[in-house]
From TrEMBL:
This is Acetylornithine aminotransferase. The gene is astC. One of its GO terms (biological process) is L-arginine catabolic process. Keywords: Amino-acid biosynthesis, Aminotransferase, Arginine biosynthesis, Cytoplasm, Pyridoxal phosphate, Transferase. The lineage of its organism: Bacteria, Pseudomonadati, Pseudomonadota, Gammaproteobacteria, Vibrionales. Its cofactor is pyridoxal 5'-phosphate.
Length: 404
């Protein structure tokens, strides 16, 4: 490397210390394999935190981006554009939705969903209908509103005073919801699978019960599908696995295949609450982002592609279960599609980060979901060779870990 090549120490010198990135710098990716500055390869089981749904440097996404880059980059929301209209049409055709609002991230999508819920309730029922029910261990983003709705005080307590009117109750506990829901409730926001909270799937009875309670109390049911959406669970959106239709759904991460984009999906009757001037974003619906997302979504929505996610899930879970029979590290392996969490047993509790770091040493990238869960969220099209190679590398890391 020459003297102008950035090094890891530059992060500590120049960037706000919000993150603690790995010691190596990835410089190139192909499919689900990433290479660092020294040429070392890593099998990517993290997927950019469930973002890189089609892997790295996907040729079809590259082509969509380059074609749009030669046409129109940005105009602002005083104008519409062809890629955003085409993507909105796809989303409406493929889901429960009748209207779409585009933004740039999952946090912004959840912010828009919560603002919509309060404004709709204000217009329909008056100012007193403003309370929101959310769940402990939930994660909805890092804006002040969404971090307040998230049920993890470690992310919000340093930024008080926080927005009020938000009640947190236990996940998968309908009785807890019944105890706090009232005519003052304007919305319930829930992840069909809690991602950052430990990869914990909702039960069908829980989500169906929330739907019934929201109908009874005239509250909007918001599904946060930022992490579970766009093929991640083996269905296009996780709500399709439960037979429960939300009123508003937030989507981001995999939607852009690596290009930043977010959106909310909703029905006509609720969309009217966000009238002209009531909400907005400079970059939302940007032609570059929506061109890439349109191509990614058109690939992922195909039935054959989604069935491939299911088969990859089975291979990964079977392999992890076999590994656990040999090493006895996990007390539970759970999730759906290619969002899988392995919860450590008592012997190794609190050591997910250390295991993830040892996996890096063996050349495989994983995630954590709290201190006790190792999380996998690879590309939805990860090749059979990369999947097997990554599992072998993870096996080596876990074997080393239990023997140290």
């Amino acid at each position: 490397m020459n003297s102008d090549t950035p090094v890891r120490e530059d992060f500590d010198h120049y960037l706000v210390p919000t993150y603690a990135p790995a010691a190596f710098i990835p410089v190139r990716g192909e499919g689900s394999t990433v290479f660092d500055q020294s040429g070392k390869s890593y099998i990517d089981f993290a997927g950019g935190i469930a973002v890189n749904a089609l892997g790295h440097a996907n040729p079809e996404l590259q082509e969509a981006l380059m074609q749009q880059a030669g046409k129109l980059w940005h105009m602002g929301n005083g104008y519409t554009n062809e890629p955003v209209l085409a993507l909105a049409k796809q989303l409406v055709e493929a889901t429960f939705a009748e209207k779409v609002f585009f933004c740039n991230s999952g946090a912004e999508a959840n912010e828009a969903a919560l603002k919509l819920a309060r404004k709709y309730a204000l217009e329909q029922s008056g100012a007193e209908k403003n309370e929101i029910i959310a769940f402990t261990s939930a994660f909805h983003g890092r804006t002040l509103f969404t971090v307040s709705a998230g049920g993890q005080p470690k992310y919000s307590q340093d930024f008080a005073p926080l927005p009020g009117g938000i009640h947190h109750v236990a996940y998968n506990d309908l009785d807890a919801v019944r105890a706090v829901i009232s005519e003052r409730t304007c919305a319930v926001i829930v992840e069909p699978i809690q991602g950052e909270g430990g990869v914990i799937p909702a039960t069908t009875e829980f989500l169906q019960g929330l739907r019934a309670l929201c109908d009874e109390y005239n509250a909007l049911l918001i599904f946060d599908e930022v992490q579970t959406g766009v093929g991640r669970t083996g269905s296009l959106y996780a709500y399709m696995n439960y037979g429960v239709e939300p009123d508003v759904l937030s989507t981001a991460k995999a939607l852009g295949g690596g290009f930043p984009i977010g959106a909310i999906l909703t029905k006509d009757r609720y969309a009217t609450a966000l009238s002209v001037g009531s909400h907005g974003t400079t970059y939302g619906g940007n032609p570059l982002a929506t061109a890439v997302a349109g191509k990614a979504f058109s690939i992922i929505r195909q039935p054959a592609f989604l069935s491939g996610v299911v088969s990859r899930h089975q291979f990964l879970v079977d392999t992890l279960q076999q590994l656990n029979r040999e090493l006895a590290v996990f007390r539970d392996i759970r999730g759906a599609g290619l969002l899988i969490g392995c919860e450590l047993n008592e012997t190794y509790a609190g050591q997910a980060k250390q295991i993830s770091q040892m996996a890096v040493e063996e050349g495989v990238l994983t995630l954590i979901a709290g201190p006790d869960v190792v999380r996998f969220a690879p590309a939805l099209n990860i090749s059979a060779d990369e999947l097997e190679n990554g599992c072998q590398r993870f096996r080596a890391a876990l074997t080393r870990y239990v023997q140290k």
